[in-house]
Write a structure and sequence with these properties.
With 133 residues, the protein is an alpha+beta fold. The protein contains 4 helices and 5 strands. The longest helix is centred in the N-terminal third of the chain and has 13 residues. Bound molecules: tetrahydrodeoxyuridine (THU). Tetrahydrodeoxyuridine (THU) binds next to helix 2.
């Protein structure tokens, strides 16, 4: 599956972001273990804490689309500075990640950074503490 397709899906999601308060538009696209792509954007709310992040929306779409593993997640934000997933979204990505999961960070049409979730969230709390894997 080409990363260009993933980028296109993330840009498409970003174009539909609802972010009238921050004016910071984010799109995320996930490639799952079935080679399917799921995307989502941030959706803000006038009651600020109720807004959801793009990564969160894309993960919900993956679950609804019968995916359960994030092989790659590509995130694209507005502006000219490459951002990085918030702490909550790092934990959300980790839930469905494998050792090989790649997190790709983009601005416009360019992939600027390629990370592992363990780079983003070392010493994480994870499901291994709750059950035997
Ligand atoms: N945002 C995301 O969508 N993902 C992140 O990982 C960081 C922040 C959104 C939330 C809010 O709508 C806007 O960016 C500014 O924080």
């Amino acid at each position: 599956m080409s990363e260009q397709k993933l980028l296109k899906a993330a840009l498409q999601a970003k174009s539909k972001a609802y972010a009238p308060y921050s004016c910071f538009y984010v799109g995320a696209a996930i490639l799952d273990e079935n080679n399917n792509i799921h995307n989502g954007s941030n959706v803000e709310n006038s009651a600020y804490p109720l807004g959801v992040c793009a990564e969160q929306s894309a993960i919900s779409a993956m679950i609804q689309g019968d995916g359960s593993r994030i092989c790659k997640i590509l995130i694209v934000n507005s502006g000219d500075k490459t951002s990085s997933p918030c702490g909550g979204c790092r934990q959300r990505i980790l839930e469905f990640a494998t050792e090989n999961t790649e997190v790709l960070l983009c601005v416009d049409g360019t992939i600027n950074q390629r990370l592992r979730i363990s780079d983003l969230l070392p010493f994480s709390f994870n499901k291994s503490y709750l059950k035997d894997d």
